[in-house]
Structure formats: C-alpha cells, structure tokens
Amino acid sequence: MAAYKPVVVPACPKLGEKITQDTLYWRGYKTPVQIKEFGAVNKIDFSPVPPYNYAVTASSRIHIYGRYSQEPIRTFSRFRDAAYCATYRDDGRLLSAGSEDGLVRLFDAAGRAPLRQFEGHTKPVHVVGFLSDKYRIFSGGDDYLSNLWDIPSATEIISYSEHTDYVRCGCASKVNADVFITGSYDHTVKLFDARTKSSVMTIEHGHPVESVLLFPSGGLLVSAGGRYVKVWDVLKGGQLLVSLKNHHKTVTCLCLNSSGQRLLSGSLDRHVKIYSTTSYKVVHSFNYATSILSLALSPEDETIVVGMTNGVLNVKHRKPEEKNEKSQKKRQPAYRTYVKGRTYMPKQEDFCVSKPVKRVLRKYDKLLRSFQSSKALDAVLEPPIMLHTPEVTVAVMQELHRRGTLRSALAGRDEKQVNLLLTFVARRVIEPRFTPVLVTVADMITDIYQPVVGQSAIVDKQFLKLQEAIGKEIDYQEELLEVLGMMDTLFATFTKKRDTCLEENKSNGLTEIIETNRNY
To answer: U3 small nucleolar RNA-associated protein 15 C-terminal domain: from which residue to which, for each copy (predicted)?
Structure first.
C-alpha cells in the first residue's frame, strides 16, 4: 500500500515589508504590559529627572508609576470629580492638575495633599502646565479662558478671554519663560506672551484642536485636530510648513522623542504614527486594541506609554542591548566530533540500518487519510484557520473535489455549520487565487440547500451576502472589460496615426526625389 501524501497547500506570494533602521529600532520594544485604570486615561506625563516616574490622570485620580512598576507607587485622590492634565515641573518636584470643579491644584510630587489651590475658572479645567521659569502656571478651561497664575502667592496674574470655545490643550516654551500656547475647539491656536495683555499670534488649524506641541528650539509648532497634524513656522509668523493626513480618525495626542528627530501622533483610529521631522513621512506605526487618548515617551526613549478610552494603560519597554563581552562558556566539542563518520562508505559485507523518518500529519491530513471527508472539512473551517490561513481551507476543498467527495462533505450540515461555510465563501470568493475552487463550492452549496431556503433567516442572509458579493464582482469585471476595450481603441488609433504619418513621410520623400531629378 502506497504511503499517504499530505495535502499540498499552494504558496501565495506576499508583498514583503520594507525593513529600515526605524523599523528595527521601533520593533525593539518588549511585549506590552497592560494596566487597568479607573477610567479613560486623558493624560500621561513623565518626570524630567531620574528615575523617570510617570503620572497617569484617569477618572478622579492621579497615579504615579515607577518605570517598571505595575502598581502605583503614589496616588493623588483629593478630587471631588474628574481630574485632568497632571503635569510635572521641569525639576520633577511639583505636579499640577486641573479638575472638573474648575480648580487648579499644585502637589508636591513626594507628598499627597495639595500645596496650592488656584480659583478663577468657572468651568472644568482641561489644560495645566508650568512656564519654564518654574514659578508660574498657565491653565485653560471650558469657560474659554486662558489664565496665568503665580505659585508663591497663589494669585492670578492675568486672564485671557480670546478663545470662543473650549480650551483643551496647551504647552509652554522652553526658550522663553513668558511664552505659552493654547489650542481650542474654535479651530485656533493662540500664542500668548505674559508681558502683553493679548495674544501675539493666532493660527487657524481648520479643525477643533486636540493637542499642540512646541519643538525644543521654539521655532516650530505642531497642532493636531481632526484627521490632520500640521506643522507651523512660528518665526515666520505662523506659516504652514506641512499638513499630514495619515490617520483615519481624530488625532488626540502628540509627542516628540528625546532627540526631536521623530514625531509621534496617537488617534482614535487605534494607531500611533511615527514621523521623521526632516521629511515628515511615516517611518513606523503601532496598532492598539482601542482608541488612543494620550501618549508619552520617556526622556531616554526607553518606555512608550499609551492611554486608551477603555481605561487600559499600555506600557512598552525597550529590550536591553546585548553585551558584547564574551561570557565564559563551557568548552564545546570540536566541529570534527559532530561530522565524524559522515563520509564513511559502507563496504559490501556491511549491513546498513536505515532510520525511518517520522512524518507529522496535521489534523485534516489524518482525517483525509482515514477517508473522513466531512470531519476533514470541519477541521479547516475552524476560525483560526479560516481567518489566518484561508489557503489551507481552500486546498482541502480542492482535494475533496478531486476525490469526488466534496458534495457529500458539504451535505448534512446544521444551520450553524452552513452559516460558517457561507460566510467563508462569501468573503473569499472574490479573491482571484481562490475563485476557481470557491465558485464550484458555492454552486454545490446552492444545489444542496436550495430546498431549505426560507426556513432559516441566518442562512438566507448569508445567501444574500453571497449573491451581493458575486454581483459586485461581476459588475467590477464588466467595468474592467469596458476599460480594456477603451484602451484597445486608443492604442489602435495611435497605431493608425503612426502608420499614416510614415506613409506621408515616404510619399513626400519620393515626390522630392522626382522633382530633384526633373530639375537636373
């Protein structure tokens, strides 16, 4: 009896991903650690000084996490309602935060109770930050105000009421201690100077502004709102340099790496895009489970923390670099020890014993070998195989059709199995590599289960989806044939014109030769 030959799964060519230095670098992060918070994470901020703890603002609490800790090492919970935008000062000693009740609170990073409380906003405060002189705080709220506060005296220095909608983001200049920027849902970004009574620059973003970011040099400003990330030249009066539209939904957060050469943006489309700040092209992207609200990168680029709408905190750490030092290992046998005797040629009187090669068959191969066609088909209709390796499912169907047992394998199925089968066929029948086999399968399914049409709403729905998919594909093929016909007509016209021009040139040349001969 001949040995069973496993089903041959045809290998389909795949487009290879271009591997760059950025790809290798950003892939050098470990598997993420998931931390569950009490609510949506609206802000993540790293301490600028070692050991680079980070503050996470979610619900009515602010949690401080260590770099590798999965439990908060400190909690600030002195909020009646939601807390917003917990931000570290440049020296990492103080922490400021806004709240739903309109108060701005100042905390000692090593303590728990608030040191200062600033009253002046009448609605929730979503934006809080320190100016670079470390003694003043700016804030923005849903009352359309942008306020500046003095920390030692806990008093309001100045209040700007130039926005016409909620103020939801802001940042301070690291170069000039009097300059800070706010972004609002009125589609504008305003640059304020504490020495003046009004804004010194207004930039129209075109969409509600969700996040703003100032480069360390202070010359470039990045704003995010809608699906757009825009870069502005502040030194040229707010001139637009580039507009990026790489996200499919609203961009909610921005971040720079430590060198300022890479810009990161997070969005509700569950992606984090990484741009080069020289070409502003996407060099890498991360995909997450749910919509992203906040994003932060540690000062040494060692940790990426992403906060999501479902309250999950996603933390990725860089893999430690491999040390080049040669570790003292136990001396292994020489190479000749392993290859000894491989070139030995058996003599005539020798008795050779061949070691049988054990073949490991997959589940569907074992069932096919025992002629269990229906169970073999069930084995390849499991969701992991159908979703990730559909070519295996189609290969088994093709083998069953070759054996002549496909119809019997498809028959005698209940509502759930027929629904699963039709879902797979309707989804994959339009792929050219699967179409020849799946058209035959669809034809058989229609013949077998036609008498029971109308008895199950679920099966009827799948039949309609299959009909719709095939109808769309037919229309698409007809359009392609029409385009092909148009192109053939155009090519034929060009060919005729070219032939006519050549004939005219030949005739003109012959006439000139005849006239020249006559003159002579």
So the answer is: 344-490
- β-partners of residue 265 are 254, 273
- Residues 239, 163 within the same domain: yes
If asked whether residues 278 and 372 sit together in one domain, one would say no
Side-chain-facing half-sphere of 356: CA atoms under 13 Å: 3
Does the pTM of the predicted model rise above 0.70? no
Are 144 and 264 within one domain?
Answer: yes
Q: Whole-angstrom Cα distance, residue 431 to residue 476?
A: 13
Angle at CA 500, nearest 5°, toward 499 and 502?
A: 65
User: What angle do helix axes 435-449 and 390-403 make, rounded to 10 degrees?
Assistant: 60
130 and 239 housed in the same domain: yes
Q: What confidence tens digit (pLDDT) does each residue in 31-64 have?
A: 899 999 989 999 999 999 988 999 999 999 999 9
The parent domain of residue 96 ranges over 22-317
Number of domains in the chain: 2
The answer to whether 408 touches 397, Cβ cutoff 8 Å, is no
Burial class (CB in 10 A: 0-12, 13-18, 19+), 159: middle
Instruction: Give 306-324 pLDDT, tens digit per residue.
Output: 999 999 999 999 988 765 4
Name the β-bridge partners of 204. 188
Instruction: Specify the CATH number for the domain of residue 261.
Output: 2.130.10.10
**Residue 86: closest CA among 146, 133, 37, 130:** 130
Residues 6+ apart with CB under 8 A from 19: none
Q: Is residue 342 a part of any domain in this protein?
A: no
Can you tell me which residue has the tokens 């699967």? 434
